[in-house]
Sequence to fold (202 residues):
Amino acid sequence: MSALGQLCEQIALCRQCDIAKSRNKVVPGEGAENAEIMFIGEAPGWHEDQQGRPFVGAAGQFLDKLLASIGLDRRQVYIANVIKCRPPNNRDPLPIEIRNCRGWLDRQIEIISPRMIVTLGRFSMAMFFPGKSISKVHGTASRQGDVIYYAMYHPAAALHQQSLRQDIEADMLKIPSLLAQARPAPEIKAPPQPQQLNMFEV
Ligand code: URA
Fold:
């Protein structure tokens, strides 16, 4: 089994937080182990808790459409959440839950080693753009080392609010060119040097 598969099995056994008692299924994440882009949402909702898969409800269908707008589908990226268990009644994740789950997310990022991390919503944004407000930071990127971090609104928030929907659609369209910038420049081979002619050789 792949390193990521093994990690997801370990995540599925985690009982660090009280919400482990009320969950139906853990939602570790899914997608390509070698994905160039990793999307990080907030927490599983009811549908995700039923299926053990991220973003499979209404917000997920919208995320699929957004991905399609840039020619991608979810199997080509990796989708995870800040916390892996559903908070009861879809309440916000607690700071202790975010802290407990952080190690799992860091390990996922380490294994996948994406060129670009896209945060969906404010909880995910707060991890990589600390102290920033989502209304200011959405649609902007910051490069740290070899990785580009990019903040977007959460698809669930944008789904029913027309102005946010326009923003999230426009922000998604910026991803391909940011990703192109994150790829290493192609190696330019030096042209073959003309052979030195030895005038004295017959
Ligand atoms: N919202 C999230 O943040 N994550 C999911 O997986 C589903 C809805």
